Amino acid sequence: MSNAQGIAEQAVLSAHRISKSFGEIPVLFSIDFDIKPGEVHAIIGENGAGKSTLIKVLSGIEQPTSGTIHFDGKAVTLPPNGEAEAMGIVLIHQELNLAEHLTVSDSIFLGREIKKYGFLDLAEMRRRSAEVLDTLHVHVDPDARINTLSVADKQMVEIAKAISRDARVLIMDEPTAVLSVGETETLFEQIRRLTARGVAVIFISHKLDEIMDLADRVTVLRDGQLIATVSTEALTPDSIAQMMVGRELSNLYPPKHEPDVDAPVVLSVRGLQAPGVNEISFDLRRGEILGFAGLIGSGRTAVAEAVVGLTHKTAGEVSMNGKAADFSEVAKSVAAGLAYMTKDRKGRGLLLNMGLQPNLTLLTLKKHLKGGFLDQNSEAQALERAVRRFDIRARDASVRVGQLSGGNQQKLMLGKTMESEPDIIIMDEPTRGIDVGTKQQIYHIIAALAAEGKSIILISSEMQEVIGLSHRVLVMREGRLAGKLEGAEIVEAEIMRYAAGIKQGGDDERISA
Amino acid sequence: AQDEKIKIGVSIPAATHGFMGGLNWHAAEAEKRLEAAHPNIDLVIVTADGPEDQASDLEDLVSVQQIDALVVLPFESEPLTEPVRAVKDAGAFITVVDRGLTDPTIQDIYVSGNNTEMGVNSAEYIKSRLNEGDNIVILRGIPTVLDTERFDAFMGAMEGSGINVLDDEFANWNRDDGFEVMQDFLSRFPDIDAVWAQDDDITLGVVEAIKQAGRESEMFVVGGAGMKEIIKGVMDGDALVPVDVLYSPAQIATAMDVTVAHYTSNGPVTGTYILGAPLITQENAEEFYFPDSPF
Amino acid sequence: MSVSAHEGAKPARGLRIDFKTLGPLLALILLVILGYLLNPLFLGEGNITNILTRSAFIGIIAVGATFVITAGGIDLSVGSMAAFIAGVMIIVMNWAVGAMGASLWTVLFGIGCSLILGVGAGFINGFLTTKAKIEAFIVTLGTMGIYRSLVTYFADGGTLSLATGARDIYRPVYYDSFLRIPYPVWVFILVAIVGWVLMNRTAFGRYCMAIGSNEHVARYSAIKVDRVKTATYILQGLCVSLATIIYVPRLGSASAATGVLWELEAIAAVIIGGTMLKGGFGRVGGTVIGALILTAIGNILNLTEIISNYLNGAVQGVIIVAAVYLQRGSLRTGRKKAAE
Amino acid sequence: MSVSAHEGAKPARGLRIDFKTLGPLLALILLVILGYLLNPLFLGEGNITNILTRSAFIGIIAVGATFVITAGGIDLSVGSMAAFIAGVMIIVMNWAVGAMGASLWTVLFGIGCSLILGVGAGFINGFLTTKAKIEAFIVTLGTMGIYRSLVTYFADGGTLSLATGARDIYRPVYYDSFLRIPYPVWVFILVAIVGWVLMNRTAFGRYCMAIGSNEHVARYSAIKVDRVKTATYILQGLCVSLATIIYVPRLGSASAATGVLWELEAIAAVIIGGTMLKGGFGRVGGTVIGALILTAIGNILNLTEIISNYLNGAVQGVIIVAAVYLQRGSLRTGRKKAAE
Ligand SMILES: Nc1ncnc2c1ncn2[C@@H]1O[C@H](COP(=O)(O)OP(=O)(O)OP(=O)(O)O)[C@@H](O)[C@H]1O
Ligand SMILES: Nc1ncnc2c1ncn2[C@@H]1O[C@H](COP(=O)(O)OP(=O)(O)OP(=O)(O)O)[C@@H](O)[C@H]1O
Ligand SMILES: [Mg+2]
Ligand SMILES: [Mg+2]
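ok -> structure tokens follow
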């Protein structure tokens, strides 16, 4: 989509020959970039290509090692620590960047509180928060504390926070990574509303259809180099992918092997009740990929967490291979060969202040004991294996995980989960923030695992992913199973209908009003 | 029934080190003894961790215990003068123990241990044993008024004796600190002829350090207070700790006795009772030996 | 989709907040009942006044500590700082009495000095933690030793006492009342209100919480983290100074024994009140109740003779743990109810 | 590409680790030089032995505290716990002497009791923090008061002294040496080595760091968080018990004054050593050096006369802050260098 009349001649923000190194490690090489008012300029590239670093430079969070930045045509040195917000440059960080103890309304106005007579005007802030949240169709209480929100809601709060500021340049680093179709649509509506008002938007995403949908121009980065800046009309998803990865991406999804309907049931859940989960029953067969679709907050995560023993289930039975498997803690489920990979990599998945190796082996440390002591060689080997298998790219293996690019963190977490060699894997948003090239790899890994006889539950907000990989799809809505799809029924429209509550039922009689 | 009873509040510092422990024990024993002997007397003991805490205790004794008389061993003299005056103004009979208030007119009875005399007597004994040019070291308590009083008196008495005071350090009325400070004195000074440890808890640590260094024959130690272990040693003729200077924690019991006597005897009891700080030697040690006391 | 859930959640949240505030209050109420049962005079006007007045010292200091802790710091130096400020105040006022005779000005002069010292001492703690980047624990452990030593040194191992002239003028500040409420209690009430407003109704309070919760986030939100953190220490210093100003007329003296372990009591009051030691979430109201709980425990121990004096500390320990358990317990029930 | 990057990274990491370990060591070396300049006797064999032996108590306790703090907890009860265990040990051994006469068994019996008490006390702290979900600060503040009171109570406010018979048998444990190194130092060395291995070479150490770093991540990584946390407190209790076992033969007594403020010293040693108070990162080696630094400061102050005694605390404070500043300073330079 283009917004021709909105795009003015002069760039509001531009970067010339920007380079950036962290210590001795170069990350960006002489990048040129500009953004005009009313334009959506997308940045794409593989994981670790330097997208986040570039926009951090563009918002003053990081200072470039060399090169200049122009704002409104004048060369400027952007102030650090988000102070550039005062100039109208607003950034949504790739990783959630909220103080967990504050309330939603506090977070939205953090750093630029509304005051009356020098005191906080709480009512006004609450009102305005509610307003912004409402335009985004997010239904969270402005007084709720951040640590009680789901990852997706947190992301929406971040978006609300950014939108509520008087931005001239709004920079969004993978805002849609945890959002499902509905939320993404709302977000795009808002972005279009803003660009219509002349706001310039820089947008990073690994979802190429979103790029095609939203962006006016696309800049492609690879290994810190600028590959090209082109207008969206000149592109197809395939050509973008090719530019990003440097090779043809023919089949994103591997061919589905035929589901074996006679394969034994390895995981059976009956009448599961837990916080956020209402009467869920399903079976998972050997070698099956079972997709879980649904809107945000529909309870998919809650099901997974109750099954593996992270939360207490209040009723229902879980059995594995016909034996009761009521896990009271995760350690037991891991030992039984059932692993859960969280979607909240920052808060639940990885120790950000530690290195790659301790993170990778944390779940399976017992495997790396020799005579009761940790065998660091064996740990190092595991890391090497994971680095190869999941193509984890750290410019410097000593970096703390918090310094890895978002996608590489995700890959590390995948590696960590797979280290436990589970028979059943519940993957919660496994490709969150992962570039198309790697996504393809991961899809192939998932398919291969299924072919090997492992069973997989795939929770994903990316509809295509669920459709492309799953043998069967369960759709959840408000904590209940809303529908069950198989084979040719698995199409986007059908899933949406169940997820939105337009269609109900399925083959299970218990699914009623 | 409560009204007929005479309630006597006893406010003392908490049992944070040996001497105060002894004092607490003697107070508790005296309470049992006096309450048994005089059914119309009720004693209430409260303990404090510091001057301000003690001031609070005094308020509580007046407002909730509604005492008729107060026996108080002030944590520090000056800060507690006004709070004790307030108790007096509330109509109570006041007995002050050990550390005098800055305004002596407040008290009806004063039972005094004697820090000055303790310092002087210790100095006199050391002077009697040593010659000009001999060396001593001093271990002090916690930097407080009472420690300073003892120390100043001791130094005053030593003046002109020609005996060198090599150094003094705080040992906080604590055996462990006494042990460590003495260890360091021993490694620092090759020639020490006497140690003024000022307190029997410190003495015990000092003695261990001297024994560890194997320098028992070189010096002697003068402590203070009258701890039973030390008195026993003096009785048995211990050469390392040949004497002790009394600074008895039992003074609190004396004070409680005379205060009760004020209510139970016929004549009024007031005035000052100075207990003194006599030197305890092998000859008189028996009189000061209470094997059942915890101190 | 989530509209119904949204509405359903509202009352639950109200319930949760209620419980959070109720926690420490409940513990305090139980303690008051216990006190009354042990000795009905516990609720006598005199005793209540005493408890309130006493809790003022720790309470005022603890209000300051609430900010430091909320912003993720800790200040171990407050007790020593109080002793130090009291000592210097006395020295200064005595000098003023000597130079110009005792007058109201003497006292005001002393109070002024106290405020300056409090702010200065707070600034030093703040500077060393933020600029020199030394852990707050170590910095304030260090200044704790330094201040305590300095008082001892100034007092030559003894007590510093306020000259009688100044004493007489200053005395009413502790002992007199306004509307039957002693001045220290008024100061406490004032500090508590200002503290509460600062924490809950100003950007500063938000910044403290944000910093304690996640320093990176705070930094990225253009909050001047170092400045806010330093400000919490200065605020703490100011609170210590205020506490000292009402402390000095009580006993008219300062020594090495002044304010010993106040830091522990202050921190305990803060945490009993529901603020988290790791920072991120501060409750001034809870702190006030925490200070009252601590003072009430000490008072109750003086009400009765059923427990050996030697066990005072044990009883205190048990009550503190029980009080916190109670409030956390009720909190959890509250949460569970809200979830169901 | 990433394999080569991986290899290229190795030396940088080595450098950083070097600096981190060097920090406290550097401070210690400077302190030793200072000590020597003030009084050459500082480096005499006797004095060195004294310092090492003394640092054993705090050091052993601090090794335990390193685990508690690394896992995000805190234990304020260690000093009181030591006094309590020492007291009970003495009571028990005296009883045994009375019942069966003094023999090696008496002492072994006492030691056994000490170990059981240490583990038990640690378990109580751990249980109350993890299961009753009360803040560690409050729990251990409570048990601190309780243990201290109990010793005072057992000792009737006075001192518990070990019967002479048992004393004579037990005494060598503190005073004798093996290869000219006193037994307490051997115990310290052993505890330090075991602690180091546990922290750096076992799953347990890794779990402690993970929990202190992010409890959620730890839980999601199938770590039994409550169990590991409880284990750190038990380990702490065990360390206190070991420290007590070598403490009791020194003076053969325990009283209310035993172990006062050891908790503060232990925590200070841990933090001087480079472990973070917030948890997530523990260094046993640093803790050992931290304990040596603290002991050396006290020793140096006793070896010189240039400073007024009243100012000891101030000097101590200044040195601690300076030592930590030094190491953080060198750390920062180190990091910068590694980064450039
Ligand atoms: N603070 C830092 N210190 C050291 N290296 C860093 C730091 N921040 C980023 N890097 C490195 O810079 C490179 C580029 O990272 P960046 O986050 O910009 O990638 P990205 O393109 O956003 O990737 P993704 O799609 O995975 O988010 C990565 O190799 C990363 O490890
Ligand atoms: N412990 C809990 N207590 C109360 N409510 C809960 C709890 N856990 C989850 N919920 C609620 O259950 C609903 C489902 O949340 P869940 O995170 O499982 O959804 P999801 O389908 O995985 O979506 P998302 O992608 O947003 O995470 C949400 O409304 C959430 O607030
Ligand atoms: Mg990125
Ligand atoms: Mg009685």
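Chain D has one domain: 55-297.
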